[in-house]
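can u do me a favor
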């Protein structure tokens, strides 16, 4: 068995700072004894049969002593890229992590697997902190997790200088970039802290970083040119769906009720919405908890802990929740409004299905979201150049929402993956299709209504004019006498909402939120009015019957998440989950620290009857085998 607990336990490969770097290994053909030892650790300590795609390239470079920037999709195993080298080399790796909860859970997972790991943060009791310092100075720790603020404290830097840090691993590295979607100023200081520690090896990892963000990370963090790895962004286990808002609360309730009993996140656009939706879900018999920055700190922490440790909880949250949340069995992510950008969207949906099992995503959006995001960009204190970048990012997200083609193809094209244009068959566009039509005449009618009403009115008033509804406002302003009054009766009001949204997305009109939401025609819209430009449209109807049909499809698909387990295996899976929950409570840790769902599903299928058979199950390493095998074997024998 490989001993993962202490330093200097390997006959070869261990090194300390000051030793010459290990021989470099080509990332195109990783090989050599260091990588072979890493594979052995992967199997014996963590219970994984081999590297995931791309991991071996990165681990080889880290073992060779090179600085690395790795952009890998969520769930691709970024943490293993610095955890394995720490164990193989017997070095101290300091992991800069953004959240205390994330540190706590990752340390618990490592310790459960027999790896010497700890975290220094404000939640640590004084006695434990003293023990951690003693372990550091004695060279007993392989991984130490700290927040960037803690890393910069003089006492922490002095302690780490004595402990001879070999590597600083920067998790969620996109936080360094001012143009990123989760910018944290403290991350900008990490490069300076590293210099004070003698410029140890830097390994930076993130799931989302476009070219501009990668350049800023390299410039702000590394003292030496790093090896840069940008791996595929595809998350094939995620079902991608985006729909116009109709009756928002009903849409969300329908979606979540079809997945009752699963863990999920509903991202909300305001603090009040988090609490309102949590109450609505609770009223429907679904355990839901709110999370936002305005909650009492103890309540917020308790809600987060419950979500991490228990199954079947839905967190209704602002985007303050989620960065670094390492819960592998989140089965769905819903957006109750348009995300900030396509990068933020990718990061947030990436919190679902980290275990590789099927998971669902749904984004609900409307004209109000597009207007709000544009106004936020325009009113920000960013430079004109940065505003331009942010507008382009928003336009890319709107295009993804309105696309008539495969969403996965459109999403991957945004990140530069354009080799394969084959529809994925696993998004709502591929599944349901999109009705397209020549919307030029419809756009001309809508734009004409704006012009003829003096470009002074909002969407509701304009839709009334187009459908021939004599509202008080329409009659008062004499708009029932216009040529455009009633010229759009071929569409319902809900359909006109979709048409206005697409006009806005295409840049044919703008909305001035400072003037009661008035719509006005842009230069591009004038070209349409003059017949110089055609307007292809996606018919985004939002009729109640359509929503009922969508609900039925969602329920049918959600029921297939655990496909492959027959009735007996399903009963065993539920029994194994119950035993896991009990063990997790004893450890005061999330359930997945014991075993992930994927491991329990494999147990339920294979029904191992001996320790040796249990050792062959994915995710059952040596330490977990010794600690948990008998308990789970008892469940298998008795179920």
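np, heres the sequence
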């Amino acid at each position: 068995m490989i001993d993962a607990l202490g330093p200097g336990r390997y006959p070869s490969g261990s090194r300390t700072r000051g030793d010459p770097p290990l021989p470099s290994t080509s990332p195109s053909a990783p090989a050599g004894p260091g990588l072979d030892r890493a594979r052995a650790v992967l199997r014996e300590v963590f219970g994984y049969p081999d590297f995931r795609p791309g991991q071996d390239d990165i681990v080889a470079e880290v073992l060779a002593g090179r600085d690395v920037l790795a952009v890998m999709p969520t769930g691709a195993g970024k943490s293993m890229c610095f955890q394995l080298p720490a164990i193989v080399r017997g070095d101290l790796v300091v992991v800069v992590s953004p959240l205390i909860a994330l540190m706590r859970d990752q340390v618990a997972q490592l310790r459960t697997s027999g790896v010497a790991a700890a975290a220094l943060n404000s939640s640590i009791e004084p006695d434990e902190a003293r023990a951690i310092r003693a372990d550091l100075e004695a060279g007993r720790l392989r991984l130490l997790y700290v927040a960037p603020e803690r890393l910069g404290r003089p006492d922490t830097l002095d302690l780490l200088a004595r402990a001879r840090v070999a590597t600083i691993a920067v998790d969620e590295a996109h936080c360094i970039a001012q143009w990123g979607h989760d910018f944290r100023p403290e991350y900008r200081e990490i490069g300076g802290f590293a210099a004070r520690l003698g410029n140890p090896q830097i390994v930076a990892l993130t799931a989302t970083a476009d070219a501009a963000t990668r350049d800023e990370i390299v410039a702000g963090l590394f003292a030496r040119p790093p090896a840069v790895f940008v791996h595929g962004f595809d998350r094939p286990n995620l079902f991608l769906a985006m729909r116009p808002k109709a009756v928002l609360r009903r849409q969300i309730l329908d979606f979540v009720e079809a997945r009752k009993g699963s863990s999920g996140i509903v991202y909300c656009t305001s603090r009040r919405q988090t609490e309102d939706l949590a109450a609505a879900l609770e009223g429907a018999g679904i355990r839901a908890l709110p999370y936002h920055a305005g909650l009492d700190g103890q309540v917020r922490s308790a809600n987060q802990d419950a979500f991490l440790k228990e199954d079947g909880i839905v967190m209704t949250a602002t985007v303050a929740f989620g960065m670094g949340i390492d819960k592998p069995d989140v089965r769905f992510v819903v957006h109750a409004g348009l995300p900030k950008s396509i990068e933020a969207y990718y990061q947030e949906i990436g919190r679902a299905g980290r275990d590789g099992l099927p998971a669902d995503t749904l984004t609900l959006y409307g004209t109000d979201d597009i207007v709000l995001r544009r106004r936020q960009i325009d009113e920000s204190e960013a430079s004109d150049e940065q505003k331009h970048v942010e507008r382009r990012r928003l336009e890319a997200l709107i295009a993804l929402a309105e696309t008539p083609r495969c969403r996965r193809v459109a999403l991957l094209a945004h990140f530069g993956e354009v080799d394969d244009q084959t529809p994925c068959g696993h998004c709502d566009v591929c599944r349901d299709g999109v009705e397209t039509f020549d919307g030029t005449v419809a756009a001309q009618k809508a734009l004409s209504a704006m012009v003829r009403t003096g470009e002074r009115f909002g969407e509701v008033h304009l839709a009334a004019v187009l459908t021939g509804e004599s509202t008080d406002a329409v009659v008062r302003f004499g708009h029932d006498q216009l040529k455009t009054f009633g010229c759009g009766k071929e569409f319902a009001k809900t359909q006109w909402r979709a048409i206005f949204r697409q006009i806005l997305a295409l840049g044919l009109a703008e909305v001035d939120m400072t003037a009661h939401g008035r719509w006005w025609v842009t230069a591009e819209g004038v070209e349409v009015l003059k017949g110089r430009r055609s307007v292809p449209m996606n018919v985004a109807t939002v009729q109640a019957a359509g929503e009922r049909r969508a609900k039925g499809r969602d329920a049918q698909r959600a029921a297939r998440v655990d496909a492959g387990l027959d009735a007996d295996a399903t009963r065993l899976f539920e029994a194994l989950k119950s035993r896991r929950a009990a063990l997790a409570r004893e450890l005061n840790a999330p359930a997945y620290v014991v075993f992930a769902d994927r491991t329990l599903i494999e147990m339920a299928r294979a029904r191992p009857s001996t320790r040796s058979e249990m050792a062959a199950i994915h995710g059952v390493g040596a330490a977990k085998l010794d600690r948990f095998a008998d308990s789970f074997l008892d469940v298998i024998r008795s179920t």
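Residues 1-32, 541-553, 559-563 have pLDDT under 50 and may be disordered. hope that helps!!
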